[in-house]
């Protein structure tokens, strides 16, 4: 099997879309979800240390916008296994030319895309279909004392969610808008 992953840049430095080429025959499809060799330039010296799975039951639900502070900042690679989601990353990195800008990509099993969210970017998504399932690959262990987030409706960021938000966890609803004096996360 040859190269099966194509990496595309986005307007936010380090935020990348990986398109997987599934192999299809009469039995169905087969797709490589992760390949250290093919993604060596993306991953660098990092390694995947944790893999998580989520299932979101209701259309319109938002999960996010989450990140971890250094020294537990993490790169995330996220993929939709079932359903359809609108996946968003926000650049919170101090000194970044795209500071407080966001970029979104629709992820579905059919489009076989994976979003790579670099350290210093907040991540979240909105379920566009019921029972949407996501797979997350993390380069740092979950560290609750370093976990943080920003409001999904922060006016300084201005994320244009495709659907009305129908559900949000109490934790995500409690995230405050970014303070006016916030200069970014050191990375």
How would you portray this structure in words?
The chain contains two helices and 13 strands, in the order ββββαβββββββββα. The chain is mainly beta. The chain has a single domain (5-23, 32-174), classed as Jelly Rolls. The mean pLDDT is 95.
Write the layout of secondary structure elements.
Elements: E1 5-9, E2 16-20, E3 23-25, E4 28-30, H1 40-43, E5 50-56, E6 62-68, E7 76-82, E8 85-91, E9 102-107, E10 113-117, E11 121-127, E12 132-138, E13 147-149, H2 170-174
Antiparallel strand pairs: 1-2, 2-10, 3-4, 5-12, 6-11, 6-13, 7-10, 7-12, 8-9, 8-11
Characteristic key phrases:
single chain, 187 residues, mainly beta, Jelly Rolls, six-stranded antiparallel beta sheet, five-stranded antiparallel beta sheet, 2 helices, 13 strands
Number of helices: 2
Work out the number of β strands: 13
Could you give me the name of the CATH homologous superfamily? Jelly Rolls
Any guess at the CATH architecture? Sandwich
Major β-sheet strand ordering: 1-2-10-7-12-5
Number of domains: 1
Q: Helix fraction? A: under 10%
Short description:
The chain has 187 residues and is mainly beta.
């Amino acid at each position: 099997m040859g190269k099966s992953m194509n990496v595309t840049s986005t307007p936010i430095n380090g935020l990348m879309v990986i398109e997987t080429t599934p192999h299809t025959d009469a039995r169905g499809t087969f797709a490589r979800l992760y390949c250290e060799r093919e993604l060596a330039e993306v991953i660098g010296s990092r390694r995947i240390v944790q893999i998580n799975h989520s299932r979101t039951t209701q259309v319109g639900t938002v999960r996010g916008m989450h990140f971890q502070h250094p020294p537990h900042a993490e790169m995330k690679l996220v993929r939709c296994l079932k359903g359809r989601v609108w996946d968003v990353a926000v650049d919170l990195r101090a000194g970044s030319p795209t500071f407080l800008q966001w970029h979104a990509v629709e992820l579905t099993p059919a489009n076989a895309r994976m979003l790579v969210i670099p350290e210093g970017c907040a991540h979240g998504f909105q379920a566009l279909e019921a029972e949407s399932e996501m797979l997350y690959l993390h380069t740092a262990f979950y560290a609750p004392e370093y976990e943080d987030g920003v409001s999904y409706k922060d006016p300084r960021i201005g994320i244009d969610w495709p659907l009305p938000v129908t559900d949000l966890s109490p934790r995500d609803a409690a995230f405050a808008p970014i303070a006016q004096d916030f200069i970014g996360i050191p990375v």
